[in-house]
């Protein structure tokens, strides 16, 4: 018998959305996850398309996440959306 803990069920019927921002031009930035809210992809849609996407997928809305404590930031504390505000050489 294995000493590993039994994994919890991964329910692909559960879908999650966390709004991460709204742009002045009418686009909604959000994270979308299936089965596990902590494993998400970043997406962006118009407000109308976002509302339709949420309805079609019967998503569970998640609370927005606060900014990470600046004293604990690491190289992993970034989002793809951050690249639009960063100048690369």
Q: If you had to describe this structure to a student in words, what would you say it looks like?
A:
The protein has 89 residues and is α+β, with helices and mostly antiparallel strands. It has a domain of 53 residues. 12% of the residues lie in helices and 28% in strands. It is built from one helix and four strands, in the order E-E-E-H-E. Strands 3-2-1-4 form a four-stranded mixed β-sheet. A hairpin with a 5-residue loop joins strand 2 and strand 3. It is flat and about 45 Å long. The mean pLDDT is 83.
SSE order and pairing:
Blueprint (H helix, E strand, L loop, with lengths): L14 E8 L4 E8 L5 E7 H11 L2 E2 L28
Parallel strand pairs: 1-4
Antiparallel strand pairs: 1-2, 2-3
**Major β-sheet strand ordering:** 3-2-1-4
Structural category is alpha+beta
Shape: flat
Number of strands: 4
Mean pLDDT: 83
Radius of gyration: 16 Å
Number of helices: 1
Q: Uncertain spans, ≥5 residues at pLDDT below 50?
A: none
């Amino acid at each position: 018998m294995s000493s590993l803990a039994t994994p919890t069920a991964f329910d692909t019927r559960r879908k999650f959305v966390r709004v991460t921002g709204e742009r002045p031009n009418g686009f909604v930035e959000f994270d979308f996850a299936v089965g596990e809210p902590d494993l998400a992809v970043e997406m962006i849609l118009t407000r109308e398309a976002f509302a339709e996407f949420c309805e079609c997928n019967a998503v569970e809305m998640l609370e927005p996440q606060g900014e990470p404590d600046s004293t604990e930031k690491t190289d992993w504390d970034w989002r793809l959306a951050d690249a639009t505000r960063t100048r690369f050489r």
